[in-house]
From TrEMBL:
Location of the NYN domain: 3-151
Protein name (database record): NYN domain, limkain-b1-type
Gene3D superfamilies xrefs: 5'-nuclease (3.40.50.1010)
InterPro entries assigned: LabA, NYN
Gene Ontology molecular function: RNA nuclease activity
Coiled coil: none
Organism: Colwellia psychrerythraea
Matches recorded under Pfam families: NYN (PF01936)
Amino acid sequence: MKKIAVFVDVQNIYYTTRDAFSKQFNYRLLWQELMAQGDITVANAYAIQRSDDQQHKFQKALKHIGFEVKLKPFIQRRDGSAKGDWDVGITIDIMEAAADVDTVILLSGDGDFDLLLRKVREKYGVSTEVYSVEQLTAKSLIDATDVHHKIEQSLLL
């Protein structure tokens, strides 16, 4: 049976599906689709820790589905902007998991991950898949992955 590792850039998926469709991503449906393809051995969702009930409910729902939710503190800068970047954490976790799985699946449209996907395919021979909103995804990321799944209405709530 195919071993699958899934990594979700929660902020990226939240904002891109909201901006493109004014809807939320259906993580439960994704989980069911992936379970049908193989054994999910790693499933990490990377989020920002905020103290609001909506976030807590969402994170609880992700855990209930089967994701390990990794949280980073929400940092408000003096200029009002916010920071909560998981790129390095996601990269480290993917590099560590890639040796033990057949497929690495990334949910993000962030072009910074293109090099990572090329590297794990080259070094570990894994296949890579990306789920993202096509018009809000870096072309370099789409070009770097074996399979690009467009997030469309069917994967939204």
